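Standup notes, structure subgroup. Blocker cleared on the zinc ion input:
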Amino acid sequence: MIDTKITFLGSGSWQGVPAPFGDDEISKSVEWGSKDFRFRTSLLVQTHNGKNILVEVTPDIRLQSWKYKLTRPDAVLVSHWHWDHLFGLLDLDWFAEKNSLRVYGNRVTKEWQENSMGHINVNFSVFESFKTFVIDNVEITPVPVNHVEETHGFIFKNLETGKAFAYLSDFSSIPDHTSEKLSTSDYATIDATYLASDIDDDLTHVQKDQFPKLFTSIDGPQLILTNIGSYQNLSHDDFQAMFSQQTIAYDGMEILI
Ligand SMILES: [Zn+2]
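Run returned:
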C-alpha cells in the first residue's frame, strides 16, 4: 500500500454544526456522529510510512484528537491565522511542552502565533507561495487564495502514485496561477460557507451566485464542498441532492491518493 490517506477531521464552517446555542433546525436536531455533525474544517494526511500531517489546528482539536484517536502530528499546516484554523493551539500548551510541534504557516500567521500565543512551544516554519516542500512521500505546494487575510491552500501530491489532492479552505476567489495548479489535481476542496445562503455583508467567502461559475472554471479535479454551516439549515443529504455533480464533505470522510 503506497497510498496517502486523507481524512476529513472536520467539515464545518467557523461555528461548526451544531452552532453554539444554535436555534436553527439542524443545530437542534443534529446527532453526534451523523453526517450533519461537523467539527471546524481540518484534515489528517497520513503517508504510507505512517507520518501524520495535521491540516489546521481548530478550537475542536481536543475532541477531534479523541474521536479519531490521533497520535502526535509530525507536522501541522495552517492556512491562515483566523481563530477557527489556528487557535486550537491554545489547547495544545501542555502537549507542546512535552512534544516537538512543528507548525508550517505563512508569514502573517507566524506573526499572529507569536503575538497572541507566543507562550506555546512550537517550531514555526514559514512557507512561500508555490515553493514546494516534502514530508515523507508527499510533496506539499502552498498556493495563495483570496480571503480577508493572507491565506494559502495546499496541494498534496503523492510522489509514488502521482495523485494529488488540493485543500482550499476560506476564500472568496482563486488567483489564476492557483487555478492552473489545481487543474492537475485529482480532488479539490471548495469553500462552501455560503453555498446555499445569501449573505451580503461578508464578501470574504465565495458568494452563493458565484458557485456555478466557480464549478465550471476549475477543470479537472473532483470538487469537494466543505466549510459548511448550520445557518443554511440544510442537511448533508439535502446539500448532496442539490449539488449532485460535486461531493459534499462530511466528518470522517476518507480519500486515497
Ligand atoms: Zn478565514
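Discussed briefly. The mean pLDDT is 96.
Next: hand off to the docking folks.
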